[in-house]
Amino acid sequence: MASITLKDLPPPLHRALKSRAARHHRSLNQEVIALLTSATATAPKIDTEAMIAEARRFRASLTWKGDVEDLLRHKRDGLE
């Protein structure tokens, strides 16, 4: 298994990592691995088709049937 060495680690960072490791009941090494794993994880895929479908359903559920002129008037006058 590969290993790395961190040099010139600032003391406050070292203390913070040790404290975090203790809170998570892990060794300092395990905590750093967990942090690096989290930092390099890829974001989950977003289902854009599902998001668009949801937005369309929401839009269809709206009851206001005004036109652009109504919208501009409300924007200018303030909608109450």
Describe the structure.
This protein is mainly alpha-helical and about 80 residues long. It folds into two domains: about 30 residues; about 30 residues, no CATH class. The protein contains four helices and no strands. It is elongated. The model has no long low-confidence stretch (mean pLDDT about 90).
Write a short abstract of this structure.
With 80 residues, the chain is mostly helical. The chain is 62% helix and 0% strand.
Outline the secondary-structure elements.
Blueprint: H1 11-23, H2 28-40, H3 48-61, H4 68-77
Helix pairs in contact: 1-2
Largest sheet: none
Number of strands: 0
Structural Rg: 26 Å
Continuous helix count: 4
Helix content: 55-70%
Q: Distance between termini?
A: 65 Å
Which consecutive residue ranges, at least 5 long each, have pLDDT under 50?
none
Query: Globular, elongated, flat, extended or rod-shaped: what is the shape?
Result: elongated
Oligomer: single chain
Percentage of residues in DSSP E strands: under 5%
**Helix vs. strand class:** mainly alpha
Count of all domains: 2
Order of helices and strands: HHHH
What does the average pLDDT come to? 91
